[in-house]
Write a structure and sequence with these properties.
The chain has 338 residues and is an alpha/beta fold. The protein has 2 domains: 4-212, Spore Coat Polysaccharide Biosynthesis Protein SpsA, Chain A (Alpha-Beta Complex); 224-337, no CATH class. The chain is built from 13 helices and 10 strands. Strands 1, 2, 3, 4, 5, 6, 7, 8, 9 and 10 form a 10-stranded mixed sheet that branches. The protein starts with a strand and ends with a helix.
Length: 338
């Protein structure tokens, strides 16, 4: 039986893909049956030539499969294609410009045996740009097995919204149709929101299992022409989260949505977006303020006024942007104490 399906969408990563695949091959000593599904998303460079070269010269036990999209469809579609083809008990996504640390699979699957109740097992990742691990405070495994606690940890960004560097129980993905929203930017956000609503237990382990590379040509790096698509995606996420809120967590939930809203407003302030998308942004801004005011949470509603002119000009100050999360924490404390 295949224990793990590794899924790698490939697009315009010729400088990184060999290292990524070699890091997967290095997991062979984990002693488990693995498959690696590579999705050709029709990039313009030589990425897939490198993929075929690596695979053709590999004669080990990992079962490599290449799936070809008819046209470029984006990373969300690539992950969905791989997830629907996967046969493993667990799924693991890798961004093709990143790579696995030696012993990654052994650490994560070992943890799955020690904590069989965990649907999601997350290792630490090392950020090349920040030169530090993600959970540098973690010294031993931490299990969250209470739904309310899982919701709170996600909304307070203790549990991050990246799809990579984690084992995901395939049955959980398939049974709940937890696939990525195609045609959006930063699709990881809404996918993770729904994921952490369906899991029963999440495990964090202290092992550094993944290296995150800040690739300047990555689809995650927004350019001016993507501004409208970015704002449209953020508006969609805000409305979906407001339509399907985590129960009993109004303050944390609305602060999380507001954080996304402010990212959209900041994007609009620094780049042109279409009038239609700008209007939809104003509507969701009005919605979150109205819901908060009607709930009687005055401190929170006053904080949300920073999304309206002229108060939103405060976003032009780097001090406010850099302290936004801290200000949100203060408002949360004041609102919950009330």
């Amino acid at each position: 039986m295949i224990s793990l399906s590794i899924i790698i969408p490939v697009y315009k990563v010729e400088n990184y893909i060999r290292r990524c695949l070699e890091s997967v091959i290095a997991q062979e000593d984990s002693g488990v049956e693995m498959e690696c599904i590579v999705i050709d998303d029709k990039g313009p460079d030589n990425s897939m030539d490198i993929v075929h070269d690596v695979i053709s010269n590999y004669h080990g036990t990992i079962d490599f499969k290449v799936v070809v999209h008819e046209r470029n469809r984006g990373v969300a579609a690539g992950r969905n294609t791989g997830a629907k083809m996967a046969n493993g008990e667990y799924i693991m996504f890798i961004d093709s410009d990143d790579y696995l640390k030696p012993g990654c699979v052994k650490s994560l699957l070992g943890a799955s045996k020690d904590y069989p109740q965990a649907d999601v097992i997350i290792g630490q990742f090392y950020s090349v740009r920040e030169q530090k691990p993600s959970y540098d405070y973690l010294s031993s495994p931490v299990l969250y097995d209470n739904k309310e606690e899982i919701h709170r940890k996600f909304l307070r960004v203790i549990l991050d919204c990246f799809p990579w560097n984690r084992l995901l129980r395939r049955k959980l993905i398939v049974d709940n149709q937890l696939y990525f929203q195609e045609g959006t930017i930063f699709e990881d956000v809404i996918w993770s929101y729904h994921l952490f609503d369906k899991v029963n237990a999440v495990l964090l382990i202290p092992d550094i299992t993944y290296v995150y590379e800040n690739n300047p040509t990555s689809a995650m790096n927004s350019t001016k022409e993507k501004s409208t698509a970015t704002v449209r995606s953020f508006v969609f996420f805000c409305n979906e989260m407001l339509d399907q809120p985590y129960k009993g967590m109004f303050v944390d939930h609305h602060l999380y949505v507001f954080n996304i809203l402010m990212k959209a407003i900041d994007t609009r302030m620094h780049a042109c977006v279409t009038p239609e998308v700008s209007l939809s942004l104003n509507l969701v801004r009005n919605r979150i303020f109205r819901e908060t005011l009607l709930s009687g949470r005055i401190f929170l509603a006053m904080f949300f006024l920073t999304a309206f002119p002229p108060f939103n000009n405060i976003l032009r100050f780097s001090w406010f942007r850099s302290h936004f999360d801290r200000l949100g924490s203060v408002i949360r404390s004041l609102t919950l104490r009330k």
